[in-house]
Amino acid sequence: MALSEQEIIRREKLQNLRNLGINPYPANLFPVNHTSKQIKETFEEGKKVIVAGRLMSVRDQGKACFAELQDSEGRIQLYVNRDVLCEGDDKTLYNQVFKKLTDLGDFIGIEGELFTTQVGAKCIRVTGFTFLSKTLRPLPLPKVDEDGNVHDAFNDAELRYRMRYVDLTVNPQVKETFIKRTKLFTAMRGYFNDAGYLEVDTPVLQSIPGGASARPFITHHNSLDIPLYMRIANELYLKRLIVGGFEGVYEFSRNFRNEGMDRTHNPEFTAMEIYVAYKDYNWMMEFAEGLLEHCAIAVNGTSEVTFGEHKINFKAPYARVTMTDSIKHFTGFDISGKTEQELFEAARGMGIEVDETMGKGKLIDEIFGAKCEGNYIQPTFITDYPKEMSPLCKEHRDNPDLTERFELMVCGKEIANAYSELNDPIDQRERFEDQMRLSEKGDDEANGIIDEDFLRALEYGMPPTSGMGIGMDRLIMYLTNNASIQEVLLFPQMRPEKKQAQIELSDEEKFIIDLLTKNENRMDLTQLKITANLSGKKWDASMKNLSKHGLTKVVVDGEFKFVELVG
Asked: Ranges for the Aminoacyl-transfer RNA synthetases class-II family profile domain (predicted)?
């Protein structure tokens, strides 16, 4: 493994610590009794505290240093005085261990007492220092100039998502998104529990991929020698529990769909589904309004949130528009009573890409998606979907061509989907058979397998029921003003990291790399060229080759150009 100069130096420091009898990775408990936030909130002059975290900055003043320690809740300033830390004649702990062998990013434990500096900063006067973990790679710490401008920020999206552990360390504001994510789950779970509903678990590995129209991931069970599918939805299992006598059940489930990735889709995602007996979709709309208003306030302290350029208000009630009226309003086309061919021609006439595998439901879905849904910014219920679009949904009580279904749209995207659930086993079998025909026709999202056990469960009787699913990742995007789903997933799916091949570098190229390494991986382009002192031909060839292999890049910062090491 090729190591950078800084990595080599840190490994040398690691050995020097061991030579001094200091274990850089001690096993024993360190008795932390305060966090940085607690210190600031309950500050008391002279109070003794024990804290731990990463060393993030040091301002050396000779026999003393000011430093910053970062823990899980923020940063606190340290004052490390040589004679306070080392009361006797032996100053090794300060002179050697702290000043020479401790690097930014290292985990340290601190004992000390609180005091206020002359400029009014809350600070810990360090009386005890313990090494807790030596870091072998330097953190990509951003730098702030005198005018408050940030340089060298760790903001490359692919690196941030791939190395979330670094992202959370050097971009502490990112942590707030995931704290709010947990608040959302806690608030929703509490709302359901207060209503008397039961949280349950259902299988992730399923013999039939049911409950939604999507392409599944397929795996194999060696012992049973059968194919299994990663669940695309948990709906059919939760409805089995309603058959079994539970009045209300819900689950936060990890679902898996073998589909494309974009700013609002990840192949692995979290959904919440809830099913309540003796209810219908009208009741569920009111329940959803109360739930989302409650969650928005729990996460942000208000029902109003900002998402991009939009101000969204989750305060109930929400507008309600039928799908038929929505399509008619935005396209002038009435889908009522239209044949598959008429829908096909209409969609194509609207410039929508369609193909022969699409049935009526898919065609209507394409028209609505292309022409309507993007217009709904404030929370809006789109209701009464055509039957072909909803194979698990109860027929509308007033119109046999429609179903009792709604989707909740926010900022042009669906965040909730709900039905009056189909509980007629004969009707359900016919809907499954329709899905099979679509699958045979070539629709790879249609479910081509009939779940006979689910049909058997319905034959034992399921009470009138309403169910709802919410995409948790998309909801937290809106509540935290993040336009990309990768920002709200701690570890989003990424392409495999490219393995760095051994690259043969010329002596001139190695010299340029060495200059950049010694200057914290970044130099002014003109200064680097002057320092390298190469002929024009060798300079151009070297810079071209380093850029070609992805080892350096040129960045523009105002009027200046800089060369940076990559990775």
From this structure: 181-496
